């Protein structure tokens, strides 16, 4: 045994994917089924195309999603919550730029007892005024709390500069927005966007035929097909001409930095290879940004660059919290690292480490039915086949050092990036 | 039921192996039985700083992260008041890479001064990011110092102050390593698509030549029973008035622990919970409220926190928490108890699905004295009665055993 020599490794050359199938409920609602796992647990994930993209007023998509669980016909908010929780079920709900969702996590044995109630949330939510005023107050308070956090303020300035105030990706919340939402508006939005024709579902875990049948009996009813949700919604991007934005916080001991720009999303053929470039640049613990700015200089606890894909565009962002006295030095180092990536070909060992790391990450992301259900959902929403993941693995492996450089030249232009600081 | 086999090397290193053929991954988790509670009161934050230092190269291998990433792996670590825990997760086919890396840093470190200086800076930035440059970021410092006068839980894992981190020396690092990072002071769990015989072979190959060392004793002073209500009022630049109440509670192995956890669940988990319905929805005292346990091995804290609505006085908010908590003792029902039992059954089942969670939990229960505790936990929860909830709630919610931090928002 020689401790100086690393053991041999084997990089997996394909990803074992749990089989899934697509079934259609009687009303046309598509359900993706992943029946696997040892534990008697199940997750059902409903996705509605009802995100911020479609809201006629700021906060509406959020409040509809939040208020749907605050009481249904014949049951109060507390009674609804009590039923789910009595059976040990966890009901989560959330809104993103384009979608809104509900996920229920349950022991397989208890799920049939709560599914009818979930359907009541989808079809018979009552939007009581009393509960709405409490939720409105709590959200306003939360808004006050968030505005005191530098990273929140930086992100808000960053997104609004990039997309503009009238675009849902860039729209920021003001106190006045809380005054402009009524339960009447919530009901209208709910009726238009929360129906079977605007929905897909993914069910994962240890399943049985009876469960799948009850899924159809409950969520497959034709009456829920609903009106066609208005989808011809368009928004104009109005980017800020000024790229350098600073908000002064005189007592801050650190500065929040965000650097980046709008970029391509998953529909673009360059995207998967751009993920490889981004990982190498700042997308994992061993990245160039981390190696230089944390591990060599000690300016920050962490610096990352991220690529986010949304249905109508993508975002490339570099973010860090750094000591106040080194914020300009950090920005200069980011510029330097971008320049190196654009002008020098990366060495093979570094690129191989990134590729192997990414393949391991892909394996971890599909390990077990519930993790895999998230990945599968991400594929479906971009119109991809589940087997796309193995193609993705091959794309990672095939990426060359020259391509990394070309992508950096094409997509990383420091001079055109927003530089937002708060501190 | 989580099955495991046990392998013990001659140097005292214990290895638990959990075979799960359903996953192509392997998790390697090493728990060192040292945490912030073992620190010198004048050198706090050291266990956590040292955790950072463990990634800065070992005696034969200049870098920890890169070879693991090359083997398609990922790793991380955390430090608590009681333990320091390291884990690697990678394809099972590359398991030996984790053994090579972990054994070399258990053998000895590179002890590079420049790396230590850089990590001191990184940790100082972490300190600022989470504990200074955040509204309410100082609450753990204030609350622990108020609640503990003798026991080392009086400082958080990040350390009492920046200067303690800044003043750490290489001599400190060496002494700490050779006292606490010895095989006898660690427990290793290997879980996933692995076979016990192969794990045993690799363990002998890579770990058996490391000197076993001594089991480091903790010898910690017991915190005396608190007999006075302690209140600290702070006027700070925070967005909302807030209150944090830390009640003393039992240690992790005490028979009351599961009932205490149920009380937390009844009070604050989910939208059917008591504090949310009584204080946020009905009385509208708070815009958010939460209860949680400090989850320490020695006597712990049961914490309730709330953000006050405009126009609510601090005294009224404080009293509202006290009343709702105490009311639980008189009004808990069989139905409510059944609810938290069902929730806990689901929670424990879900947390078992992830191979890394299983590895970490096995190491944690081993640290508590019995790895099989992982399988017995659910029965302890299911055995709790409403009578016990009543007794334990009365014991916990004693205003003379409570430490309260009150934040008043400046300029508001």
Largest interface pair: A-B, 75 and 76 residues
CATH topology of the largest domain in chain A: Cytochrome Bc1 Complex, Chain A, domain 1
End-to-end gap of chain A:
52 Å
**Average pLDDT of chain A:** 96
Principal-axes shape call of chain A: globular
Offer a few descriptive terms.
heterodimer; A: 423 residues; alpha+beta; Cytochrome Bc1 Complex, Chain A, domain 1; six-stranded mixed sheet; five-stranded mixed sheet; globular; B: 412 residues; 11 strands
Outline the structure in words.
The complex is a heterodimer of chains A (423) and B (412). Chain A has 423 residues and is an alpha+beta fold. Chain A has 14 helices and 13 strands. Helix content of chain A is 42%, strand content 20%. In chain A, strands 1-2-8-3-7-6 form a six-stranded mixed β-sheet, with helices on both faces. Chain A has a five-stranded mixed β-sheet with strand order 9-13-10-12-11, sandwiched between helices. A two-stranded antiparallel ribbon of chain A has the order 4-5. In chain A, a hairpin with a 2-residue loop joins β11 (300-310) and β12 (313-323). The longest helix of chain A has 19 residues, at 129-147. The model of chain A has no long low-confidence stretch (mean pLDDT 96). Helix content of chain B is 42%, strand content 19%. Chain B has helices at 46-53, 65-70, 95-107, 113-132, 139-147, 162-166, 170-180, 196-207, 257-268, 274-282, 314-331, 334-351, 355-367, 373-382, 386-396; strands at 5-8, 14-19, 25-32, 74-79, 84-91, 186-192, 230-236, 242-249, 286-293, 300-308, 402-409. In chain B, a hairpin with a 4-residue loop joins β4 (74-79) and β5 (84-91). Chain B is built from 15 helices and eleven strands. The chains are: A alpha+beta (423), B alpha+beta (412). At the A-B interface, α2, β7, α4, α9 and β12 of A face α2, β5, α3, α4 and α10 of B.
């Amino acid at each position: 045994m020689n401790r100086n020599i690393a053991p041999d490794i084997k990089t997996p050359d394909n990803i074992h994917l749990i089989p899934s199938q697509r079934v259609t409920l009687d009303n046309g609602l598509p359900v993706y089924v992943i029946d696997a796992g040892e534990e008697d647990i199940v997750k059902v994930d409903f996705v509605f195309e009802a995100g911020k993209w479609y809201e006629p007023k700021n906060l509406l998509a959020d409040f509809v999603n939040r208020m749907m669980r605050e009481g249904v016909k014949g049951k109060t908010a507390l009674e609804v919550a009590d039923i789910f929780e009595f059976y040990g079920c966890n009901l989560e709900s959330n809104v993103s730029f384009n979608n809104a969702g509900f996920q229920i996590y349950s022991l397989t044995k208890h799920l049939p007892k709560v599914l009818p109630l979930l359907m009541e949330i989808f079809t018979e939510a009552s939007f009581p005024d009393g509960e709405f005023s409490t939720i409105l107050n709590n959200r306003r308070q939360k808004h006050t709390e968030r505005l005191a956090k530098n990273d929140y303020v930086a992100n808000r300035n960053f997104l609004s500069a990039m997309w503009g105030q009238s675009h849902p990706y860039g729209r920021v919340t003001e106190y006045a927005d809380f005054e402009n939402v009524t339960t009447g508006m919530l009901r209208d939005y709910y009726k238009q966007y929360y129906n079977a024709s605007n929905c897909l579902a993914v069910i994962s875990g240890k399943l049985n035929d009876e469960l799948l049948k009850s899924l159809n009996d409950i969520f497959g009813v034709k009456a829920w097909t609903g009106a066609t949700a208005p989808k011809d919604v368009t928004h104009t991007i109005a980017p800020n001409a000024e790229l350098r934005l600073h908000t002064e916080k005189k007592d801050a001991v650190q500065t929040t930095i965000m650097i980046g720009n709008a970029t391509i999303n998953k529909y673009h053929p360059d995207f998967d290879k751009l993920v490889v470039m981004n990982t190498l640049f700042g997308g994992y613990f061993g990245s160039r940004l981390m190696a230089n700015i944390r591990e060599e200089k000690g300016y920050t606890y962490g610096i990352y660059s991220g690529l986010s894909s949304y249905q109508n565009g993508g975002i490339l962002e570099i973010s860090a919290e750094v000591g106040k006295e080194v914020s300009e030095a950090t920005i200069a180092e980011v510029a330097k690292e971008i320049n190196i990536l654009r002008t020098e070909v990366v060495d093979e060992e570094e690129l191989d480490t990134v590729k192997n790391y990414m393949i391991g990450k892909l394996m971890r992301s599909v390990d077990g039915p519930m993790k895999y259900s998230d990945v599968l959902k991400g594929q479906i929403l971009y119109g991809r086949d589940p087997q796309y993941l193995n193609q993705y693995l091959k794309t990672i492996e095939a990426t060359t050092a020259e391509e990394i450089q070309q992508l950096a030249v094409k997509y990383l232009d420091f001079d055109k990036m927003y530089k937002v600081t708060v501190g | 039921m989580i099955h495991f086999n046990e392998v013990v090397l001659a140097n005292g290193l214990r290895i638990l192996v959990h075979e799960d053929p359903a996953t192509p991954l392997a998790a390697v988790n090493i728990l060192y039985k040292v945490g912030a509670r073992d620190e010198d009161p004048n050198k706090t934050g050291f266990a956590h700083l040292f955790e950072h230092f463990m990634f800065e190269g070992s005696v034969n291998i200049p870098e920890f992260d890169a070879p693991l990433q090359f083997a398609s792996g990922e790793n991380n670590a955390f430090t608590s008041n009681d333990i320091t825990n390291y884990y690697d997760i990678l394809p099972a086919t590359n398991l030996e890479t984790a053994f090579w890396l972990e054994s070399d840093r258990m053998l000895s470190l590179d002890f590079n001064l420049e790396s230590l200086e850089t990590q001191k800076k990184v940790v100082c930035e972490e300190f600022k990011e989470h504990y200074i440059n955040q509204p309410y970021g100082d609450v753990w410092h204030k609350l622990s110092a108020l609640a503990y006068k003798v026991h080392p839980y009086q400082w958080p894992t990040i350390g009492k102050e920046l200067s303690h981190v800044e003043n750490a020396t290489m001599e400190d690092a060496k002494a700490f390593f050779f006292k606490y990072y010895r095989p006898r002071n660690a427990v290793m769990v290997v879980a996933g698509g692995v076979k016990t015989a192969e794990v045993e072979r690799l363990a002998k190959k890579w770990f058996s030549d490391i000197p076993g060392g001594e089991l480091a004793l903790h010898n910690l002073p017991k915190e005396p029973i608190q007999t006075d209500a302690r209140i600290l009022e702070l006027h700070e630049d925070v967005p909302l008035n807030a209150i944090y109440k830390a009640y003393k509670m039992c240690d992790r192995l005490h028979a009351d622990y599961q009932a205490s956890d149920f009380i937390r669940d009844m009070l604050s988990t989910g939208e059917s919970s008591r504090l949310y319905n009584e204080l946020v929805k009905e009385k509208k005292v708070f815009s958010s409220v939460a209860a949680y346990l400090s989850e320490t091995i020695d006597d712990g804290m049961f914490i309730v926190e709330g953000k006050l609505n405009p126009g609510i006085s601090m005294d009224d908010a404080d009293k509202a928490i006290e009343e709702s908590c105490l009311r639980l003792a008189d009004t808990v029902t069989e139905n409510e108890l059944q609810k938290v039992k069902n929730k806990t059954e689901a929670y424990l089942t879900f947390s078992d699905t992830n191979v890394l969670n299983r590895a970490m939990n096995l190491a944690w229960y081993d640290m508590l004295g019995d790895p099989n505790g992982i399988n017995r936990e659910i029965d302890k929860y299911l055995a709790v009665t409403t009578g016990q909830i009543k007794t334990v709630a009365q014991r916990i919610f004693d205003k003379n055993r409570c430490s309260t931090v009150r934040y008043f928002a400046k300029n508001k």
